[in-house]
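TA notes, week 10

Several of you asked for a full example with nothing omitted. So below is the full record: structure tokens for the whole chain, then the designed sequence directly under it. When grading your own attempts, check the secondary structure regions first.
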């Protein structure tokens, strides 16, 4: 290639395009301030007592759900005539006053860094999506401590200026991205007396360059997941990272930076990889300078990879500003499928064999019987004869195949790639599934099961309005301990509910990601809290016991949600003293004044830094 042609190739890689985001700077224009997702999308109870999903963003939009209505009444004993109406907003007197000095505001103005002390803006960026967060916003008191100021850096250099400035003025920084965390990661430490600023990276969302020769792309870290994917799709590429919170998450959680900061995983990780497999370079601004690799080669053997400290740092060491990712051409086709198994054990054994043969499709997920029934309830009247439990198929499963509806479970599959390879891949999975008693259930159920992942998150808001608290938690575990872990956690939760006289509850699980040596298991737990004084504390108590059971059964603290503040107890308990000391030394070196004092992973009092 001559010099002229080489320059042409280089030029075509330099995009530097500002991305028009689906989420505006004023987030509450589109998103709920006290719940999950879009304002126009929610489960609601109609005047006729029927649960309905509103909006047209999802396949079940503007649809009455009679089977789901019946399901929640039977399983959770919900009285849909008694609605616990959430508050519309907090008064200005209920929101903690800002502690930022006028001198600091003046400096920001002179530096032309966008900022605000608006009460609503500060409140929105001081919480995530934990049960405590959302219950407090709807029915409890305002958080005792919220950020004092919100700043919107426009680029990497702005972040450098902000970090330098807070060190001079002894101010605390809490990075904020998509606001989808479920670990308490962006909540403000209650006992922090210094001024706290929330650094909202959402305006840092440019596509900086695209290298088609090497299949690499560089985005600013504030880009929302669906914006990133849309920009790549327009150019014929995909990143393939699709976490459950993909619509609203970012590289800084769940924006692109958040994916990196929490070591995120996506539903398509089998082909595209987890975030640590996708990241080539991540630029992080610390109090001691910028951490970056300065190389785009695929691999290096150049001593310890200290840049790995960026992954999973959860905003405690610096702010991620730019990320270089691997990309792939868009697949030729996408095919869904599903398989019914007689029981959960058969399904797990099938998934283990698929992993052993390393023939996982893009996504392979297994729902237990409770989740299967729940998913089937989320269907409309119009689709009853197209679903798995219509009369004919139900008869076939029970009388011909000998399945019991009280034990069957479903595996959903997604294949991507060239059509010929997808067909052979699908046949391979079907053959393995049949050897474990599985029966194919078709594309429609597979697609529906995959897409419901994005809708399920909306259910908790409805549940809270009818005296039900619910949350999910996850872990990773080796294959030989998967079934016993799932069984132990379910029994632990059931026993504790019985002790507390909680009669109506739900505990279910699904396997969501698979590896050579193990898998990720997601648990969903909720209960009707009628008769209890403090449902959130009760839930936290039961989940804590469940997490202890997870750890005792061979599971991890978290597979992809991170540690945050909610899981620091287990982090400090289960990590070796040497590892904790190594992290502490890194914290002391990179952040000597403890300005990144969000309290995640390990809480460091200023006196100990």
């Amino acid at each position: 290639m001559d010099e002229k042609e080489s320059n042409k190739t280089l030029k075509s890689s330099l995009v530097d395009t500002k991305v028009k985001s689906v989420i505006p700077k004023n987030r509450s224009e589109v998103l709920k301030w006290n719940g999950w997702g879009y304002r126009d999308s929610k489960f609601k109870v109609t005047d006729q007592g029927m649960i309905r999903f509103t909006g047209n963003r999802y396949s079940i939009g503007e649809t009455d759900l009679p089977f789901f209505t019946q399901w929640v009444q039977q399983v959770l004993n919900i009285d849909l005539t008694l609605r616990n109406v959430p508050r519309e907003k907090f008064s200005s007197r209920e929101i903690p006053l800002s502690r930022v000095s006028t001198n600091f505001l003046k400096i920001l103005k002179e530096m032309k860094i966008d900022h605000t002390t608006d009460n609503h803006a500060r409140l929105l960026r001081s919480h995530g999506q934990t049960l405590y967060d959302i219950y407090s916003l709807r029915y409890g008191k305002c958080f005792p401590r919220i950020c004092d100021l919100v700043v919107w850096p426009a680029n990497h250099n702005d972040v450098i200026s902000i970090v330098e400035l807070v060190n001079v003025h002894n101010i605390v920084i809490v990075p904020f991205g998509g606001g989808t965390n479920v670990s308490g990661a962006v909540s403000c430490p209650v006992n922090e007396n210094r001024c706290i600023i929330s650094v909202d990276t959402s305006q840092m969302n440019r596509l900086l360059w695209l290298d088609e020769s090497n299949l690499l792309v560089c985005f600013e870290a504030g880009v929302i997941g669906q914006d990133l994917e849309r920009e790549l799709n327009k150019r014929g590429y995909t990143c393939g990272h699709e976490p459950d919170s993909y619509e609203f998450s970012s590289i800084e959680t769940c924006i692109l930076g958040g994916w990196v900061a929490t070591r995120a995983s996506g539903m398509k990780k089998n082909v595209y990889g987890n975030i640590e497999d996708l990241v080539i370079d991540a630029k992080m601004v610390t109090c001691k300078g910028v951490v970056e690799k300065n190389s785009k080669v695929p691999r290096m053997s150049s001593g310890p990879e200290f840049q790995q400290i960026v992954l999973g740092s959860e905003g405690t060491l610096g702010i991620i500003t730019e990320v270089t990712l691997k990309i792939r051409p868009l697949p030729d086709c996408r095919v869904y499928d599903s398989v019914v198994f007689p029981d959960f054990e058969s399904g797990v054994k099938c998934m283990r064999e698929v992993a052993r043969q390393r023939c996982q499709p893009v996504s392979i997920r297994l729902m237990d019987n409770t989740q299967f029934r729940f998913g089937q309830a989320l269907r409309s009247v119009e689709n009853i004869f197209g679903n798995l439990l219509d009369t004919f198929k139900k008869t076939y499963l029970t009388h011909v195949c000998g399945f019991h509806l009280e034990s069957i479970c479903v595996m959903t599959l997604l294949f991507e790639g060239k059509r010929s390879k997808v067909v052979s891949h699908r046949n391979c999975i079907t053959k393995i599934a049949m050897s474990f008693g599985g029966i194919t259930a078709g594309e429609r159920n597979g697609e529906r099961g995959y897409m419901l992942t994005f809708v399920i998150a909306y259910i908790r808001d409805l549940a809270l309005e009818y005296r039900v608290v619910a949350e999910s938690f996850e872990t990773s575990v080796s294959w030989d301990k998967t079934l016993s872990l799932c069984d132990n956690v379910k029994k632990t939760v059931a026993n504790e509910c019985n002790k507390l006289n909680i009669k109506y509850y739900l505990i279910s699980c699904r396997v969501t990601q698979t590896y050579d040596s193990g898998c990720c298991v997601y648990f969903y737990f909720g209960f009707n809290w009628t008769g209890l004084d403090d449902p959130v504390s009760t839930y936290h108590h039961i989940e804590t016991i469940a997490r202890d059971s997870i750890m005792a059964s061979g599971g991890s603290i978290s597979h992809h949600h991170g540690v945050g503040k909610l899981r620091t107890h287990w982090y400090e308990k289960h990590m070796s003293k040497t590892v904790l000391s190594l992290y502490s030394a890194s914290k002391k070196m990179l952040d000597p004044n403890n300005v990144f004092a969000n309290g995640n992973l390990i809480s460091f009092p200023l006196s100990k830094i």
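Confidence is low (pLDDT under 50) at residues 1-12, 245-253. Use that as a sanity check on your answer.
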